[in-house]
Amino acid sequence: QVQLVESGGGLVQAGGSLRLSCVGSGRTFSTYAMGWFRQAPGKEREFVATISWNGVSTKYADSVKGRFTISRDNAKNTAYLQMNSLKPVDTAVYYCAADRHLGYWPTPPTTGNPDLYWGQGTQVTVSS
């Protein structure tokens, strides 16, 4: 079993930046594909960004492309989401996820995928 713990959320003004972190337990963290997802009030959880086990392959939702950057440091069992030029529409609870079987996602996984581990989420609020 892998545990994921997110941190770094908070309140920021539009145009500002935040960096989210996701720390994972276990010695196999470096083998997992990782991703960031978000869920706004009244909406379904949606894909934001994914990264392969070795950090070589990344994918982004169109809504965040050019503003957000996903990265990972396997030596620290940590994945990051750097968020710049934040907008009020980015307000949501942000979750990190890891795949217990795959090190690479050709396409972003669906949120109902039973092979995903999830963190508890961290709130990001962007004021106008």
Shape: globular
Overall pLDDT level:
95
Rounded to the nearest angstrom, the radius of gyration is: 13 Å
Based on secondary structure, the structural category is mainly beta
- Main β sheet profile: 7 strands, mixed
> Share of helix among residues?
under 10%
Q: Are there runs of 5+ residues with pLDDT below 50, and where?
A: none
In whole angstroms, the N-to-C terminal distance is 40 Å
Treating each run of at least 4 consecutive H or I residues as one helix, how many helices?
A: 0
Quaternary status: single chain
Proportion of beta-strand residues: over 45%
> What's the order of the H and E elements?
EEEEEEEEEEE
Total number of beta strands: 11
Describe the protein's architecture and organization:
- The protein is mostly beta strands and 128 residues long.
- Helix content is 0%, strand content 46%.
- It contains no helices and eleven strands.
- Strands 2, 4, 5, 6, 9, 10 and 11 form a seven-stranded mixed beta sheet that branches. A four-stranded antiparallel beta sheet has the order 1-3-8-7, with no helix packed on it.
- The termini are far apart.
Characteristic terms for this protein:
128 residues, mainly beta, seven-stranded mixed β-sheet, four-stranded antiparallel β-sheet
Give the SSE layout.
Layout: E1 4-7, E2 10-13, E3 18-24, E4 34-39, E5 46-51, E6 58-60, E7 68-73, E8 78-83, E9 92-99, E10 116-118, E11 122-127
Parallel strand pairs: 2-11
Antiparallel strand pairs: 1-3, 3-8, 4-5, 4-9, 5-6, 7-8, 9-10, 9-11
